[in-house]
Each structure stands twice: as structure tokens, then as C-alpha cells.
Prior knowledge:
Blueprint: E1 2-7, H1 24-39, E2 47-50, H2 54-64, E3 72-75, H3 85-93, E4 99-103, H4 107-117, E5 132-137, E6 143-149
Helix pairs in contact: 3-4
Amino acid sequence: MKLYLVQHGEAAVRQGESERSLTEKGISNLLKMTAFMDIHAGFSVGAIYHSGILRARQTAEILAEHIKPPVKLQETDGLAPMAQPEIWAERLREMNEDTMLVGHMPHMSRLPSYLVTGNDEAGVVMIHNGGITCLSRDPGGHWSVVWVVTPNILK
Length: 155
């Protein structure tokens, strides 16, 4: 199983925590990421889950438009900034299809640390707005980081 973790794209200055929408730069950076996804054959997911907060929903919608075949978007709990990584670690144990999660910091950096090491403070990967971190679970249930792509390294 592959797990794609995405921190929402760059958002506007705080207007109210749930009302922060993506900036033009945030949208532009996400389009760089979709171009990356389009080029790399075999990039697919069964579903994209997002926190429901505006900037995460917008990010998920932009990414979903470029994943073939089209995927379902699902708002879910457990992806908020201070959510416990154990929530999704437990859910992922029951899942087998490739999945994308779109959420917020610090949760998006704590989850891969927890999956890979069992310690959510291990700092396994540095997360960036609009970047994608790909993890893979082997048949024994062990997770590893496969790759990380951020908008600033793409043209």
C-alpha cells in the first residue's frame, strides 16, 4: 500500500481558522504538483481524505482533478492540526488501497514519524505546503518513506 500525505497549499493570512483559502501562489504550487503527478505513470489512489477545513478541501479538489481515474473526495476527522496520529495509524491497518490524506501541520509531520518509528516526535520527514510525501507499507505492516516532492524543487 502507498500512502500519500499532503499538507494543504499555501493559505491566505488568517481571516478565521476555517476560512483561510488558498493563495494564488498556493494554487500555482499545487498545479506544479499535479504536473508532476501527470508525468509519473502509475500515480493513483483509491480515495482522497481531507480535514474539511477550506484550505485542505481546496487542495484535495485540485489534486483530485488530476488523478486518473477520478477518485472520491471524503471529508473525515483525524486530520486536524492537533489530531493524534494513532487515529489514522489504526485506520490504515485496515486499508489496502493506495490513499491520499490532505491535512495540516503539525499532524502531517507527526503521522509519518509515528508510522515509521512509533514515535510521533521523531521528525522523519520535513513537510512543506503543497508537497507530497509518499510512504509504503510492506506485507509485514512496516512503513517506510519512499519519496518527498515539494513545489519548490519542481519547475
